[in-house]
Amino acid sequence: MNNRKGSLSAGLFILAFLIIWEAAARAVNMIFILPPPTGIIEKLWELKGPLLIEHLPVTLSTIIIGLVISILLGVGIAVWMSVSPSAEKAIYPIIISSQMIPIIALAPIFVLWFGYSIWSKVVVTVLITFFPITVNTYDGLRSGSQELKELMLTMGAGKKEIFFKLLVPSALPHFYSGLKVAVTLSVIGAAIGEWLGAQAGLGYFSRRMMTQFDGAAVFAPIVLLSLIGIILFVIVKWIENKSLKWRKSS
């Protein structure tokens, strides 16, 4: 019941926001700066061919490749730090420092290194998304109950059994929390990379339309990027619910 009320409240809020936006845009009457939602929808329909066929697959490829690399890299580093205190002391400060540098300042450097290929955008995406996965997974691996660990040791369990039967289940909720943050950031990373150097993609298309002062065409790919982020978040949430049924039952 509470979930239904929450969904209804969110729906009403979004509807009210869109109505206010529509009215304000028509009152200002400067569609190249503030297009109304109806104008953005019309532009989406008008540009559905190039957006969905030419630019959307490029952005999706960047996001998926970047997320896969971030998951492998982030989980691998987290496991390494959890089993090696010396690795944790050496690597953790570097991971933190990597987030202190503005990504928008590094993106042009990646373009110089990798050109306008997909890999310059993938590197930007990885740099943004691996951090929450790494930190959350590492914290999850450290959150295993010490009492249960000592009990397993007294029962003759080895490091392998403790890792897979205690630490991994303890880390999974933290991993999914980091992944839910990462999937939304992956959209931002791909868009930033395409804005600063690309030949195709939703971010590239939005930047190109900005030079033509077509406000609705600038917003159209942004709407698609937002939908991608929402869909990815819902997918991760669904996988989390399916794989962590034991947490609900407990």
TrEMBL record:
It holds the Pfam family BPD_transp_1. Keywords: Cell membrane, Membrane, Transmembrane, Transmembrane helix, Transport. GO terms for biological process: transmembrane transport. The chain crosses the membrane at residues 58-83, 90-116, 122-141, 185-205, 217-239. Gene3D superfamilies: MetI-like (1.10.3720.10). InterPro entries: MetI-like, MetI-like_sf. It is a multi-pass membrane protein. Its main location: membrane. PROSITE patterns: ABC_TM1. One of its GO terms (cellular component) is plasma membrane. It is found in: Cell membrane. Residues 56-236 form the ABC transmembrane type-1 domain. Belongs to the binding-protein-dependent transport system permease family. This is ABC transporter permease. The lineage of its organism: Bacteria, Bacillati, Bacillota, Bacilli, Bacillales.
